Amino acid sequence: MKRTIIELRTVLTLLGVHSALIASAIHNSGSFAPHVEVLRTPNGGIQPQTVLDGDDTLHVIYFKGDASGGDVEYVSRSRNRADFSKPIRVNTVPGSAVAIGTVRGPQMALGRDGRVYVIWFGAQLKSDDSTATMPVFFARLNDSHTAFETQRDVMQYAKGGDGGLSVAADMRGNVYAVWHATGGEPGEDHRVVYMAHSADDGKHFDREIPISPPELGACGCCGMRALADKSGTFYVFYRAAAKSVHRDMTLLVSSDQGRTFRTIAVAPWELNACPMSTAYLSEAGRGIFAAWERAGQVYFERIDRDSFTSSQPVEAPAEGKNRKHPAIAANASDQTLFVWTEGTAWAKGGSLAWQLFDKDGKPLGATGYSLDVPVWDRPSVLSDRLGNFTVMY
Prior knowledge:
Blueprint: H1 2-14, E1 36-39, E2 46-52, E3 58-66, E4 69-77, E5 88-89, E6 107-110, E7 116-121, E8 136-140, E9 152-153, E10 165-169, E11 175-181, E12 192-198, E13 209-210, E14 225-228, E15 234-239, E16 249-254, E17 262-267, E18 280-284, E19 287-294, E20 297-304, E21 314-315, E22 324-330, E23 336-342, E24 350-357, E25 363-373, E26 380-383, E27 389-392
Parallel strand pairs: 1-27
Antiparallel strand pairs: 2-3, 3-4, 4-5, 6-7, 7-8, 8-9, 10-11, 11-12, 12-13, 14-15, 15-16, 16-17, 18-19, 19-20, 20-21, 22-23, 23-24, 24-25, 26-27
């Protein structure tokens, strides 16, 4: 039976049938075997970002159009419905979003009263100054949830933004826009992570402030990820660049709405180059799950929300080729679905792969694959209240 299910899944994948797939894990007798649904991004988009709210409504943003100047669109799908809603353009100015390089794509957060917040890099530089930067645009869903309010540039004085930005929101009205940009001196070893904070559901933002240790730097063309958990603790996960060679994955944690941060080293890596990597954060139970890449392989680990101690890193199984852009989600049974791309590169698509793990980080069943990841694309993954998973790419 196990072999039949795995072979059926493989055949369906090769034929391009990506929805309602059977999970490849049939494991210990009596334990839960989750369903895994694999979806293509709606309307031919790329770089999906997904959030499931308390009513099991799936919220999705994605990029569409020319990667150097396109649009961000938003759709939703309520529970027990097969179709997504009519897309709503997020950016007020058409063609004012950037996706080129994969690391520069839009990100989304869901806050109080089901309001959606989106952040993205603008397509146009502010000036011809060599220190000018792409704008960091932000928009929020309006009160009636029918359109997005006028886009705003939340970067008021920092310059040199490039690879990394993200957004997070909690249920108390706090919204955090983050990105990395130049510090006091040129060079990525002097870059810092900046945060603009809103205490009124994104209506107004304070002027951005640096929040990362300046001696750590920030990898210039690497993405980053922010998350606010159920308790209101705020996390920023990014790649440092100390002395331009110490490209350690680093976690910033604030329990006081961004007033102070502790710094946690997650994964060291010495490399005298920018790997153009992305990062991922998700929450499940008492844990925060972090995923990253290093030297062609992808990893994840669980960080305890109380002690901030972490598990041993778990790597994707078997051999792969240039594994990048990981995504991670866990369900109520402490199973995790780990997703990543293989074979992608600059202006080159590749494959999607995923693996289910048990609570101890041991693989369950065979690795799943899809062969048609578009150029500049990256996956997203989530778990629903029943413990099943949805992957979108």
